[in-house]
């Protein structure tokens, strides 16, 4: 992976790897398997990411977290966290955001969230107590599982609506599964998403890409490393028009 310098506004980016390693150059941070990188690009931020020379297979998830309107101009920030595995009855969890099974992540977000990598042993069923005010998504990376009785296959996302206080994840296969659990309250704000920007109107989402505005880079402790120090070219601004929230597409597990 070799991502040229590019800007973000109005969001947090979440990087979680299963294999490989990424260098986050503007903060000189690395992320490897079982590690979290979370970057806050509220008012504006520029960054670049490259896989390291020793990486042969790069595999993981990249998530965007929309900042609520009250915090959409939040100060830039970068957080790195390595959660310890938590033993479950029938599997393990690595909680990188929020709280699950008595484990609390210290990573700061602007809305209540839960993010965890789960592994369920062959023939086991894991029962998880979750917040009934949250929506719950289970992304399958490896193996076939049943989420509250609904069959999910690799690359499918199971969904449980608010009101669900318990999730059961069953692995009826011969190998352990790898899953990502993503939960949070419904996001009631309408947004406009264009390229790397999140706004509430066409102007606020496309404005940062106008010539002459260069968002600052992430803070690296007591210093700031400028994106202009990275090799050109920068990622070009795409011509695509802004688009609003897409319709949901998932497997319901009620």
Automatic annotation (TrEMBL):
Belongs to the pirin family. It comes from the Bacteria. It comes from Streptomyces spiralis. Residues 117-201 form the Pirin C-terminal domain. Residues 230-245 have a biased composition (Pro residues). The lineage of its organism: Bacteria, Bacillati, Actinomycetota, Actinomycetes, Kitasatosporales. It holds the Pfam family Pirin. Residues 2-65 form the Pirin N-terminal domain. This is Pirin. InterPro entries: Pirin (IPR012093), Pirin_C_dom (IPR008778), Pirin_N_dom (IPR003829), RmlC-like_jellyroll (IPR014710), RmlC_Cupin_sf (IPR011051). Coiled coil: none annotated. Residues 202-254 are annotated as: Disordered.
């Amino acid at each position: 992976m070799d991502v040229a310098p590019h800007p973000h506004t109005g969001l947090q980016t979440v990087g979680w790897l299963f294999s490989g390693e990424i260098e986050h150059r503007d903060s000189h941070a690395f992320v490897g398997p079982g590690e979290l990188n979370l970057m806050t690009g509220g008012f504006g931020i520029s960054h670049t990411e490259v896989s390291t020379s020793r990486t042969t297979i790069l595999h993981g998830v990249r998530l965007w977290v929309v900042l609520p309107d009250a915090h959409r101009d939040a100060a830039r920030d970068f957080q790195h966290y390595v959660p310890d595995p938590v033993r479950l009855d029938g599997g393990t969890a690595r909680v990188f955001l929020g709280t699950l099974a008595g484990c609390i992540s210290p990573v700061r977000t602007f809305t209540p969230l839960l993010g965890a990598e789960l592994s369920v042993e062959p023939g086991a069923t894991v029962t998880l107590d979750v917040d009934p005010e949250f929506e719950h998504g289970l992304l399958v990376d490896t193996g076939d599982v049943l989420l509250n009785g609904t069959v999910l296959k690799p690359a499918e996302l199971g969904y449980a609506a608010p009101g669900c206080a318990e999730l059961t994840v069953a692995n009826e296969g011969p190998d352990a599964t790898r899953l990502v659990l993503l939960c949070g309250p419904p996001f009631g704000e309408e947004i406009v998403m264009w390229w790397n920007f999140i706004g509430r109107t066409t102007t606020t989402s496309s404005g940062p890409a106008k010539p002459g505005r260069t968002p600052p880079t992430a803070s690296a402790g007591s210093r700031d490393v400028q994106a202009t120090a990275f090799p050109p070219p920068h990622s070009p601004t795409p011509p695509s028009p802004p688009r609003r929230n897409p319709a949901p597409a998932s497997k319901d597990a009620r």
